[in-house]
């Protein structure tokens, strides 16, 4: 943009007869220094905000707007108001800066006279000497604070101040010069001021950024639009050119939302295209197994026999989920499915059905869990569920033999491990349950048919891929197993569409019948806390057990362990005297942990005081009370998980959240848990409280592209973007006819990802 020569877009993929339109890819190649007055220092200030190119600048969106048409005028101010006023500085009085930093120096005082062309106001800043420089005569700023009266005149003391137009700014946007209006001399109506995110370090004002954006927009001209016009019309999305204008220099506040919606759609479309393309590439490469889901002789399948033998009837949500899995397994494409379901919804049985289908066809199954405790529990539980189940085996006299399940963790002894490795390699083991130990190189399968990952959020994407790769084997001759990942930490549907968009999704939205919701109380005072200990004593008295979860300690497992030890001793001598109190924390030796869990499970211990190691999946049906100390230190999802450890046998259970915190966030979180035991409802609350950043954080590679899109309020837009992405990729799997979209995607995903998405 430095010269008109650089300015012209390459005309190659422009239709003839249309003016040259600006592509984002071009703007990404222009450094901000092409703009007027941007030298090294301003460039480095912009760099502090992550703005390096003109594209970065144009996607640095205002965080809010000040509507100059709806300000209180100075003449209307009344003492005692908390007011926001827009005014220009007309006089600055600041004491001369003194050299020394003498101790007894009087506090510095900067006093401003400001005017809106009609009235006047005095603004005083104490101990903020830099205000004199920030707000020189001529600067236009927004002041927010209480209005007081001093010697008969109104004034604001130490208000917050936001400079909207610097003093040296030529008023070239005003009047007729710009069709978007400017700052009239009298009053400040008729204009909306964008307020840009700034950083402490960068010596920039919102006004300065706004000016640079104006220049960039003026010089960029019309934008090329990658979204097909038919889609834009159908979804009521405006074109990109007015959208950039509307977000950065709206003529009225009403222009902002349609602009935001369009640009948010672009963000979501890029994200969904990346996910849909990723999925499509995986499928192209896939070498899946077409599992046999029905028997030609009409006799019952292994799964049918398994379900018939269960001590309970499946819920209809479980039946639906299994049907979906059967569809996936029968298809030649490998399954990539996420199974979401609240704590206790019965995901294990559903996963087991998928594993059994693979096994019946002569393949093997693997179930990976994040902790040893959980893997052991799964192995025991599954062992019980499949007891007596026979699988076809032509090498035996009867043509069938009992199903063989085995456990493999880092605790497995070397001798035993060798045997298991051999059994997996030669097909002697049908189903292996384990931890990360399953991923070691020495584990090979004869034929891995179905792989299940429990509590998938505890694993990385690479580990998911590593387990899947066990199917192909070292020689790459095998097939891709069908993959099911499970989570008991529900995330809202739209968030899931964004975070897990490369997976299919099934939700078990129903708990087995007869489950009573866990009665949850937020105990704020010592008196309310006493109710928690009394409930434990009472429940232990009738043969139940209780968990006490110690405060979350950041950073150090050692300190967490120490605090659990102290707490266990304190309780054993105090509130829980006379009860058998045990201890469980991450610093204990594995054998001791196991012993503690066993003692608690069998009832030799009444109370287990622990760190959050019990968070995931621990199953002790007789536990009926959970006390969580310093509950405000935990997130909603974690508290919900912890609470899921009690009330697993259908009897009434209690959860006490101890916290004296009075912060509004604690209040919101803890009352949400008191009110609801539905993980999906809580997930929505969580998203609302924490914003999408935390959900997306872990998954987003490279540039974080969601700046304007809001997962909660833009639900429909997320779904629209998904549909458009699917339609585009469905019709044109490599987007050959959409070079503009491809170029933009390359801008927003990292190089490795782009390489993968666009390889041909
Ligand atoms: P989660 O979804 O939390 O992993 P589990 O699979 O561990 O839940 O199941 C929780 C408990 O509920 C287990 O003891 C399981 O045997 C039992 N269960 C599963 N499905 C049903 C059902 N349909 N009816 C009754 N109990 C069930
Ligand atoms: Mg589970």
Task: Describe the protein.
38% of the residues lie in helices and 17% in strands. The strands form five sheets. It has a seven-stranded parallel sheet, with helices on both faces. With 760 residues, the chain is an alpha/beta fold. The chain folds into four domains: 1-63 and 196-220, no CATH class; 66-96 and 107-194, Beta Barrel (OB fold (Dihydrolipoamide Acetyltransferase, E2P)); 302-508, P-loop containing nucleotide triphosphate hydrolases (Rossmann fold, 3-Layer(aba) Sandwich); 519-694, P-loop containing nucleotide triphosphate hydrolases (Rossmann fold, 3-Layer(aba) Sandwich), CATH 3.40.50.300. It has 26 helices and 23 strands. Bound molecules: adenosine-5'-diphosphate and magnesium ion (MG). Residues 347-348, 454, 488, 617 line the site of magnesium ion.
Largest sheet: 7 strands, parallel
Question: Distance N terminus to C terminus?
Answer: 34 Å
Shape: globular
CATH architecture of the largest domain: 3-Layer(aba) Sandwich
Mean pLDDT: 86
Q: Strand content of the residues, in percent?
A: 15-25%
Structural class based on helices, strands and sheet pairing = alpha/beta
CATH topology name of the largest domain, in short, is Rossmann fold
Which small compounds were modeled alongside the protein?
adenosine-5'-diphosphate, magnesium ion
Let me know the number of strands. Answer: 23
The CATH class label of the largest domain is: Alpha Beta
Low-confidence residue ranges: 1-13, 171-187, 698-703
Helical region count? 26
Q: Domain count, please report it.
A: 4
Q: What is the share of helical residues?
A: 25-40%
| Rounded radius of gyration (Å) | 32 Å
**Spatial order of the strands forming the largest sheet:** 13-14-10-15-16-9-17
Give the full name of the CATH homologous superfamily of the largest domain.
P-loop containing nucleotide triphosphate hydrolases
């Amino acid at each position: 943009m430095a010269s008109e020569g650089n300015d012209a877009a390459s005309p190659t993929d422009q239709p003839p007869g249309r003016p040259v339109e600006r592509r984002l890819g071009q703007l990404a190649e222009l450094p901000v220094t092409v703009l007027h007055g941007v030298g090294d220092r301003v460039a480095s200030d912009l760099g502090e905000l992550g703005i390096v190119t003109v594209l970065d600048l144009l996607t640095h969106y205002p965080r809010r707007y000040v509507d100059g048409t709806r300000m209180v005028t100075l003449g209307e101010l009344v003492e005692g108001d908390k007011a926001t006023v827009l005014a220009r500085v007309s006089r600055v009085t600041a004491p001369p800066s003194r050299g020394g930093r003498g101790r007894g120096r009087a506090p510095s005082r900067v006093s401003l006279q400001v005017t809106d062309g009609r009235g006047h106001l005095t603004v005083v800043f104490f101990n903020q000497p830099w205000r004199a420089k920030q707000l020189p005569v001529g600067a236009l700023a927004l002041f927010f604070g209480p209005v007081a009266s001093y010697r008969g005149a109104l004034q604001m003391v130490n208000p917050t101040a936001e400079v909207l137009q610097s003093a040296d700014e030529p008023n070239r946007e005003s009047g007729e010069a710009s069709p978007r209006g400017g700052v009239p001399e009298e009053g400040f109506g008729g204009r909306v001021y964008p307020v840009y995110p700034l950083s402490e370090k960068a010596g920039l004002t919102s006004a300065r950024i706004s000016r640079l954006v104006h220049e960039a927009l003026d010089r960029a001209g019309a934008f090329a639009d990658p979204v097909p016009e038919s889609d834009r019309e159908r979804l009521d999305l405006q074109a990109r050119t007015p959208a950039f204008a509307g977000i950065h220099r709206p003529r009225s506040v009403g222009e902002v939302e349609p602009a935001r919606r369009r640009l948010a759609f672009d963000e979501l479309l890029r994200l969904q295209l990346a996910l849909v393309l990723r999925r499509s590439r995986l499928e192209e490469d896939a070498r899946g197994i077409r599992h046999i889901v029905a028997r030609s002789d009409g006799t019952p399948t292994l799964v049918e026999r398994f379900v018939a033998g269960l001590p309970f009837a499946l819920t209809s949500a479980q039946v639906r989920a299994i049907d979906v899995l059967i569809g996936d397994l029968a298809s030649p494409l490998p399954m990539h499915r996420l199974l979401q379901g609240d704590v206790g919804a019965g995901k294990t049985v559903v996963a087991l059905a998928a594993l059994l289908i693979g096994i019946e066809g002569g393949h093997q199954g693997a179930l990976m869990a994040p902790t040893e405790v959980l893997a052991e529990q799964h192995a025991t539980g599954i062992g019980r569920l499949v007891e007596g189940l026979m699988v076809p085996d032509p090498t035996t006299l009867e043509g069938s033999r009992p199903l063989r399940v085995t456990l493999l963790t880092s605790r497995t002894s070397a001798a035993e491990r060798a045997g298991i490795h051999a059994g997996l390699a030669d097909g002697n083991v049908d189903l292996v349950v384990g931890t990360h130990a399953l991923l070691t190189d020495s584990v090979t399968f004869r034929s891995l048919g179905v792989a299940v990952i429990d509590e998938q959020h505890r694993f990385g994407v690479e580990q998911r891929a590593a387990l899947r790769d066990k199917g192909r084997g070292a020689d790459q001759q095998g097939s891709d197993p069908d993959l099911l990942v499970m989570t008991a930490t529900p995330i809202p549907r739209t968030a899931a569409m964004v975070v897990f968009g490369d997976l299919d999704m099934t939700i078990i939205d129903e708990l087995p019948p007869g489950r009573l919701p866990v009665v949850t109380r937020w105990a704020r005072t010592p008196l309310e806390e006493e109710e928690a200990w009394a409930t434990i004593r009472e429940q232990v008295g009738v043969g139940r057990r209780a968990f006490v979860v110690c405060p979350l300690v950041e950073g150090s497992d050692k300190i967490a362990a120490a605090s659990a030890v102290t707490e266990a001793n304190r309780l054993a001598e105090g509130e829980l005297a006379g009860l058998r109190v045990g201890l469980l924390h991450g610093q204990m030796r594995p054998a001791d942990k196991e012993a503690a869990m066993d003692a608690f499970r069998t009832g030799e211990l009444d109370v287990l005081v622990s760190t959050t190691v019990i968070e995931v999946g621990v199953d002790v049906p007789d536990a009926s009370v959970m006390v969580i100390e310093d509950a405000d230190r935990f997130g909603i999802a974690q508290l919900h998980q912890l609470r899921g450890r009690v009330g697993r046998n259908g009897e009434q259970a209690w959860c006490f959240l101890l916290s004296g915190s009075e912060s509004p966030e604690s209040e919101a979180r803890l009352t949400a848990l008191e009110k609801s035991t539905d993980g999906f409802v809580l997930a929505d609350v969580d998203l609302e409280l924490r914003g999408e950043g935390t959900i997306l954080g872990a998954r987003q590679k490279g540039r974080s592209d969601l700046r304007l899109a809001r997962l909660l309020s833009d639900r429909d837009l997320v779904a629209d973007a998904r549909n458009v992405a699917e339609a585009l990729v469905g019709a044109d799997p490599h987007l050959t006819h959409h070079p503009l979209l491809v170029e933009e995607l390359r801008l927003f995903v990292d190089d490795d990802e782009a390489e993968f998405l666009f390889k041909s």
